[in-house]
Design goal:
Its EC number is 6.3.1.2. It is found in: Cytoplasm. This protein is of the alpha+beta class. The chain has 2 domains: 87 residues, Glutamine synthetase, N-terminal domain (Ubiquitin-like (UB roll)), CATH 3.10.20.70; 242 residues, 2-Layer Sandwich (Creatine Kinase, Chain A, domain 2), CATH 3.30.590. It is built from 9 helices and 17 strands. The strands form 4 sheets. Strands 6, 8, 9, 10, 12, 13, 14 and 15 form an 8-stranded mixed sheet that branches. A 5-stranded mixed sheet has the order 2-1-5-4-3, covered by helices on one side. Helix 2 runs parallel beside helix 9 and helix 3 packs across helix 4. It is globular, with a radius of gyration of 21 Å.
């Protein structure tokens, strides 16, 4: 495809029409989908965005004989790819209303694959505790023809973590900086709460931070930032992989560590005691969290430089001061001030932030998991 030719037509006037790119999650809960709807006006809020539908068979969301899935806008953002008045529309998915329902205003129910709906219910119920999250998202840039990370020797059998790569500079060290810079600017243009980016432990591996965000905003912004990763990878002709370990080697893979605090953990005089109670509750539910913390997460515990080599089995729950190989990292500043936040380092890079943040809140605040289609909204360990 000729990108130069496409860029010529990108400058053409749309004659007052607004291109709204609807973005949603497909049936796996991690496959990002999008489609363009042309509007004759610029919406000022999600409530102004028309309800739309997609084919559930094609997205793995077929629900009985009816294949229609409804898309409902939850947030709107300036589109950094098209510019102008064009927008990105983050949506979640709903089942088609029953034919027996009143034709006037049938009630829509969240689709069984919609993890945003139960997460939103939890965050609203926990609003008094003011849960705040940040996420350190890692990814690896791959050559689309070889599926091998850019910047790695072609005949290498794997990668080795390098002290030069982390936050490094220079040719052959910070490989893919143009991509990471473009992604950062695109996220900022879209109004996402991205707070930084950096080269990571091996060439071709990068990370960026989303947050701090209150409640469900962290998950919404993280999913949209991942969407922009995928869209920009089309233009740069690379694969932006969030696989926990896309290739083998002596490196720790990709993660998505989540920093978490509540009003109570931040409170002077009692925050440290609340944090300790949170940690006890997280230890008791360790495997339930691990089941929900990303597909292929166990790969990060394999190899000489893996998390297992540094901190033990993935079955072990560990806590450490400034220990990035522990399950939970306690910052030095929190030990000094006796209040603040802690970091859950167990989630993999492809985790669903709706599930992770919902589990953190439900476990630490001792709230029941919401039910979806008669089952808990998050997977449970057997």
């Amino acid at each position: 495809m000729d990108s130069m030719l496409a860029s010529h037509f990108a400058g053409l006037s749309t004659r007052g029409k607004v291109m709204a790119e609807y973005v949603w999650l497909g049936g796996s809960g991690s496959d990002l989908r999008s489609a363009t709807k042309v509007l004759s006006f610029k919406p000022s809020s999600p409530a102004d965005v028309p309800l739309w539908t997609c084919d559930g068979v094609a997205t793995g969301q077929e629900d009985g004989p009816c294949s229609v899935v409804y898309l409902k806008a939850r947030s709107i953002h300036p589109d950094p790819l098209r510019g102008g008045d064009h927008i990105l529309v983050l949506c979640d998915t709903f089942q088609a209303p029953s034919v027996e329902a009143d034709v006037g205003s049938p009630e829509l129910h969240p689709h069984p694959t919609n993890n945003r709906a139960p997460c939103d219910r939890v965050m609203r119920a926990a609003a008094a505790s003011q849960p705040v999250f940040s996420c350190h998202q890692q990814y690896t840039l791959l050559n689309p023809e070889t599926c091998w990370p850019i910047g790695w020797p072609e005949r290498a059998t794997g990668a080795t973590s390098s002290s030069q790569s982390y936050c490094g500079t220079g040719t052959g060290v910070a490989v893919g900086r143009e991509f990471a810079e473009t992604h950062l600017r695109s996220c900022l243009h879209a109004g996402l709460r991205v707070s930084g980016t950096m080269p990571d432990a091996v060439p071709g591996q990068w990370s960026y931070q989303v947050g701090p965000c209150r409640g469900i905003e962290l998950a919404d912004h993280l999913w949209l930032s991942r969407y922009l990763l995928l869209r920009l990878s089309e233009q740069f002709k690379v694969i932006a992989s969030t696989d926990p370990k896309p290739v083998p080697g002596d490196w720790s893979g990709n993660g998505a560590a989540v920093k978490f605090s509540t009003k109570e953990t931040r409170e002077e005089g009692k925050g440290w005691f609340v944090i300790q109670e949170h940690l006890r509750r997280l230890q008791h539910t360790h495997m339930q969290h691990m089941v929900a913390y990303g597909v292929g997460n166990a790969k990060r515990w394999q190899g000489p430089c893996s998390k297992a080599a540094q901190s033990g089995s993935l079955l072990d729950f560990t806590v450490g001061m400034e220990n990035r190989n522990a399950s939970i990292r306690i910052p030095h500043s929190v030990l000094l001030q006796k209040r603040g936040w802690y970091e859950d380092r167990r989630p993999s890079s492809n985790m669903d932030p709706y599930l992770v943040t919902m589990l953190l809140v439900c476990t630490t605040l001792q709230m029941p998991l919401p039910m979806t289609d008669g089952k808990p909204a998050a997977p449970c360990a057997r």
